[in-house]
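User: Can you predict the 3D structure of O-antigen ligase family protein? Sequence below.
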Amino acid sequence: MRNSKTLVSLDGKSDWRQQLPTQILALLPFTLFFQVGLMYAGLIFFLLAWALSGDWRNKLARIQSSALLLPVVCLSLLSIIISTLHPHPAGEFAAAFSHYQTYWFLFPMLSLASGEWQQKAIRNFFLGAVIAASLFYLNSIGVLPDIKLFKSYVVYEGNKSILLGLLMAIAAAWMLHEWRLRKNLHLWRALTFAYVVAALVLCTKSRTASLLFLLLCGLLIFRNFSFRWWQLGALAGTLLLGGAGISYVAQLPAPVTCLAKEMHENFKMSGAQIVLNRGICTVHQVRDFGQTKQATQDGMRLELYLNTWQMIAQSPWIGHGVGNWLPMYQQKAQGQISEKMTTPHNDYLLYWFELGLGGLLALLTIWLTQLRVAYQMVNSEHTERAMLVSALTVAMMFAACFNAILRDGVFAFAMLILLAIPMAGVTRTALKPR
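Assistant: Sure. Here are the predicted structure tokens for O-antigen ligase family protein:
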């Protein structure tokens, strides 16, 4: 009898240890909307719980069965090979090399079995987005305290502020998808969606996030695109309206400043005015840079892209080596406004520059694999989560055009945590048609 109780106790402890990683991962999406240290602490606790949870046979089987394993292995091998062909920059190589291994952090999360924890994680993500929207509203009326925990909501802080905008755009798109699937609480879902979208548009001041939200809405609308005449007409009409809008904006007077911080502090503009002005600035910057090749402080990305592309053209096949972008760019851009930039703000250019054409193809292969998995999920037992994978992958691919989505851990780990929610437990066997 005593031995029987001991076995029950041990079994209970084993169950508790096995459930802890999923419980922590379900909470991680909530932490993304606050100081980055909370996210990193959560990741550390998750990895410790995962390492102690046992069940290694099933976990390794799920990792081996992941469609992402082969492309991630290829990227890592390529980064090792390229590292042997080029000199290692002092103080840059170790950090730069680690960035190409970031996707490995995804596999412990993918090794977890599917379960109710995934829906809980989605709800926590939505809760975080609602709280973030509330903090933006509180700041807009001047009552949010200027303390470290809320600083990203009070001051436009660059990458962290951009991430908040991207997260809210993704959350709004996921909410729209969940609203379409669920048959209950329609009014509550509609109000929550509108609450988050209004904060995204009016308060985040992020051009990338606002455009991403429109793109994801288009993805949801055309998810079953079958080349019907009305769908083609709607797409053509959208493109025509977009072209006409850009042409009209190009004729407008230039805003007094294009810097979000100056608009907020010196001119007391609202979030909506800042987004509108920054949109006008973007069109003007592209037009002016095409004519004069002169960039402004807010539009220095154009100079970054041009200079980086010129350096890529010098060694397009094997790149310039891991970690060599920063020292080579500072030498290339001496005296230019973008001289002090630490990333090219474009992952496609960064991978091509450092790893050569193979690096660019490896990155695209990983993301296209995610889209292929999402397509296969549609006709499997995971059909409800297919659009979540599609939307997040499109968000990563789009945001990588303007930001260091994988180069910067602030973006990369947040995206991988979100990716793990719908993809955990999705093996090749589970992707077979129902």
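Residues 2-31 form the longest helix (30 residues). Confidence is low (pLDDT under 50) at residues 1-13.
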